[in-house]
């Protein structure tokens, strides 16, 4: 999976990410200069929960990418608009599974 963008009418389709990982859930910063997204390891299909993922940040000006966090998550980690209004902070969810005997 890669991230693409286009105009609202469907024209000017442009691929934004090009690596071998599976990139999902793009979130543009309030100023439109950066894009945060979740990146799954190569070979993961779809956007499942309970996986090791990275939160990446891309500068849309020069396409440079940096890893903000490596965590256990996936589906549910960053599903809703996650930027603070001033673009200074980004919210996301990381979690840990409890051993099965703890759940009973």
Distance between the termini: 37 Å
Q: Report the sheet with the most strands, covering strand number, pairing sense and barrel closure.
A: 4 strands, antiparallel
Total number of beta strands: 6
Per DSSP, the total helix count is: 1
Query: What order do the helices and strands follow?
Result: EEEEEEH
Features:
two-stranded antiparallel sheet, single chain, mainly beta, 104 residues, Neuraminidase, 4% helix
List the helices and strands and how they pair.
Blueprint: E1 4-5, E2 14-15, E3 22-28, E4 34-40, E5 51-59, E6 65-73, H1 100-103
Antiparallel strand pairs: 1-2, 3-4, 4-5, 5-6
Describe this structure in words.
It contains 1 helix and 6 strands. With 104 residues, it is mainly beta. It has one domain (4-103): Neuraminidase (6 Propeller). A hairpin with a 5-residue loop joins strand 5 (51-59) and strand 6 (65-73). The strands form 2 sheets. A 4-stranded antiparallel β-sheet has the order 3-4-5-6, with no helix packed on it.
Give the structure's gist in a few sentences.
This protein has 104 residues and is mainly beta. The protein has one helix at residues 100-103, and strands spanning 4-5, 14-15, 22-28, 34-40, 51-59, 65-73.
């Amino acid at each position: 999976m890669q991230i693409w963008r286009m105009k609202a009418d469907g024209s000017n389709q442009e691929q934004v990410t090009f690596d071998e990982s599976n990139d999902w859930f793009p979130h543009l910063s309030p100023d439109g200069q950066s894009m945060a997204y979740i990146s799954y390891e190569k070979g993961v299909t779809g956007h499942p929960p309970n996986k090791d993922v990275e939160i990446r940040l891309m500068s849309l000006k020069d396409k440079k990418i940096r890893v903000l966090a490596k965590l256990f998550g996936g589906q549910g980690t960053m599903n809703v608009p996650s930027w603070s209004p001033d673009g200074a902070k980004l919210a996301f969810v990381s979690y840990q599974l409890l051993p099965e005997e703890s759940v009973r």
